[in-house]
Design a protein that fits this description.
The complex is a heterodimer of chains A (about 290) and B (about 300). Chain A is about 30% helix and about 20% strand. Chain A is built from nine helices and ten strands. In chain A, strand 7, helix 7 and strand 8 form a beta-alpha-beta unit. Chain A has a domain of about 200 residues: 3-Layer(aba) Sandwich (Rossmann fold), CATH 3.40.50.300. With about 290 residues, chain A is an alpha/beta fold. Chain A starts with 13 loop residues before the first helix and ends with a helix. Chain B is α+β, with helices and mostly antiparallel strands and about 300 residues long. Chain B has a four-stranded antiparallel beta sheet. In chain B, about 70% of the residues lie in helices and about 10% in strands. Chain B folds into two domains: about 180 residues, no CATH class; about 100 residues, Alpha-Beta Plaits. Classes of the chains: A alpha/beta (about 290), B alpha+beta (about 300). Chains A and B meet through helix 3 and helix 4 of A and helix 1 and helix 8 of B.
């Protein structure tokens, strides 16, 4: 699979622009079944589309619905939240995207290529283009911070010299420069999540998925992680975050896709889209204001 | 393939997972030790059983006064007899030396050679021993011996003993084969189970490696090398213990206990090679194959 390009930062499709202008309805309640999709998803993929879900369902045995006929697309360099309660299908969606699961029906395209076409033995090469952050961090417990992050580069065949050249920037970005030789259990939750983000971003993937990245963290630490993800997004990476932290989503003012029982019930921007030229510190200040 | 990286990874893994690594090493050591003892025991027992089966033979005792011409005549008669497999002349002197070696005190007491020249005839099959005896030493309906050649003093064949030897050795050989098969199976299961347990403890690690884009072989190589290393260490330790036991216990007994001095018993260097090869192969393959189910992420 060709690597996803992360350099195109210019335009979003017309559909994305339309979504940004949509009114704020983040906290709005959800009607009873049948579940209506309040804002229809994009009619078709544009040239900027990085992710496209078309009628994707995932069933876990009889009666177990992970995802049901999900259709949406995500453009390059977008920052998208997937919200919903536990069991709504957020994690299923993430696991489908990293090809940990196969859809029961429908098509998932990433960078224009159907994931179904990727053979099992080629999956690792695809995953190198997708950084993933998990709620439980999933760090290698017997490796130091440096080794955990370096591992993501080692699997790509990077030499020790290349790793030494690349890692200081990532460590600075994530604020881990002083924790290099610590083992995961010697770090706080926020620091462990930073390591997970650093590892996910080590190879500068064009797509970064975060599944409940702030689920185990206090509000202040969560803001730090969101700032970090925002910074990564500003560097050109498309970021998808699954969360049930509605307050945080409201304050971030980015595109929100809401799921309920596996179905997409809302796909819209939250408030007005946050200022595009807002820097990380400004974002942090805005998020903290919301906490007060 | 980056050997230095993989070796470093496997060493680190052994250091960090010292307890499971030790368990794997210990199971390899114990299994190799048991195999190392059992292989020669099976072989010696089978060798002894074959030896005993080979001794199902008919001795033709010649009269003490038999001349070389008579010997040649008897030999020629034997060659033309049915069921004869092999004929060997055991001269008085040779027989004396053989027997004296087995029972020196008795022969020292006798002080002279009481043995006749013997034609030792092996039947073409151990089961034909009785038929051969009937050919060489026909008896009358009254049970008296009908002498077929005046130079033959007696034909010796112990019917009851022959039968028990044949059935007992058959049972021994079958039992040993079954035990050997069971032991090999138990060894493989023990080692692979220990490795599986050790891998199970690290399944999350493997899952994370997969999720960051490591290929199956990138993850597998350190595990295979670790298995190889533990197999070599466990096998080496077991062989060292076996060598110690050989030097201190077996070798001193070899001259007195016939079973240990079996001529066709496996040579120690060959045993070392076989055990080492098995220990390394089972551990390395066990590691690599057991990992398979955890790689399906």
């Amino acid at each position: 699979m060709a690597p996803l390009s992360s350099t195109d930062t210019a335009t979003h499709g017309r559909d994305a622009t339309r979504r940004r202008r949509a009114p704020a309805r983040a906290s709005q309640g959800v009607g009873a079944d049948p579940l209506p999709v309040k804002t229809p998803p994009a009619a078709g993929p544009s040239a900027d589309t990085v992710i496209e879900f078309r009628g994707v369902s995932k069933l876990y045995g009889p009666g177990g619905v992970g995802l049901e006929r999900a259709t949406f697309s995500v453009n390059r360099q977008e920052f998208v939240f997937f919200v919903g309660s536990t069991g709504s299908g957020k994690s299923t969606l993430m696991r489908l995207l990293i090809k940990e699961l196969e859809p029961t029906e429908g098509i998932i395209r990433v960078a224009g290529r159907s994931l179904a076409e990727i053979e099992r033995k080629r999956v690792p090469y695809y995953r190198r283009n997708v950084g993933v952050v998990f709620q439980d961090f999933k760090l290698l417990p017997t490796r130091t911070v440096y080794d955990n992050i370096a591992y993501a580069l080692q699997v790509t065949g990077a030499s020790r010299r290349q790793i030494r050249a690349k890692l200081p920037d990532i460590l600075r970005l994530t604020g881990l420069s002083t924790k290099l030789h610590n083992l995961p259990h010697q770090l706080s939750g926020g620091e462990q999540q930073r390591v997970a983000v650093a590892r996910a971003f080590a190879g500068h993937p064009p797509l970064l998925l975060a599944d409940e990245p702030t689920g185990n963290l206090d509000p202040e630490t969560s803001i730090g992680i969101m700032q970090l993800l925002y910074r990564i997004n500003r560097a050109g990476t498309t970021v998808l975050v699954a969360t049930h932290d509605n307050a945080m989503v409201d304050r971030m003012r980015r595109r929100v896709i809401e799921l309920r029982r596996g179905r997409i019930i809302r796909d819209e921007a939250t408030g007005s889209y946050g200022p595009q030229d807002e820097n990380t510190a400004e974002l942090g200040a805005r998020l903290r204001r919301g906490l007060l | 393939m980056r050997p230095a990286f993989f070796i470093k990874e496997s060493l680190r893994s052994m250091r960090r997972n010292a307890v499971p690594s030790f368990a794997a090493l210990a199971s390899v050591l114990v299994t190799t030790l048991v195999l190392g003892v059992f292989i020669p025991v099976v072989q010696a027992t089978n060798g002894a059983a074959n030896d005993i089966r080979g001794k199902v033979l008919v001795d033709i005792d010649l009269t003490p006064s038999a001349s070389p011409a008579e010997e040649a005549r008897v030999k020629s008669e034997l060659e033309h007899t049915r069921y004869v497999g092999r004929i060997e002349l055991v001269s008085k002197q040779l027989g004396y030396e053989q027997e004296r070696r087995l029972n020196p005190q008795a022969f020292a007491l006798i002080g002279y050679n009481p043995l006749p020249d013997i034609f030792r005839v092996t039947p073409d099959s151990p089961d034909n021993a009785q038929a051969l005896r009937a050919e060489l030493d026909p008896t009358s309906p009254l049970g008296t011996r009908l002498i077929s050649d005046p130079a033959i003093a007696a034909v010796q064949n112990r019917q009851g003993e022959t039968n028990s030897i044949l059935s007992a050795t058959r049972v021994i050989k079958l039992t040993m084969a079954l035990l050997a098969a069971l032991l090999v199976l138990a060894s493989v299961l023990l080692i692979s189970n220990t490795i599986r347990l050790s891998l199970f403890a690290r399944r999350r690690e493997v899952e994370v490696m997969k999720l960051v884009g490591a290929t199956d072989w990138f993850i597998r190589w350190p595990f295979v090398l670790e298995g190889l290393c533990l197999g070599a260490l466990g096998g080496g330790a077991a062989i060292a213990l076996l060598a110690l036991a050989k030097v201190t216990l077996v070798d001193p007994l070899a001259n007195t206990v016939k079973l240990i001095s079996q001529p066709d018993m496996i040579a120690f260097p060959l045993l070392v090679v076989v055990l080492m090869g098995c220990a390394i192969a089972v551990s390395a393959l066990g590691s690599g194959l057991s990992l398979r189910r955890f790689l399906k992420v």
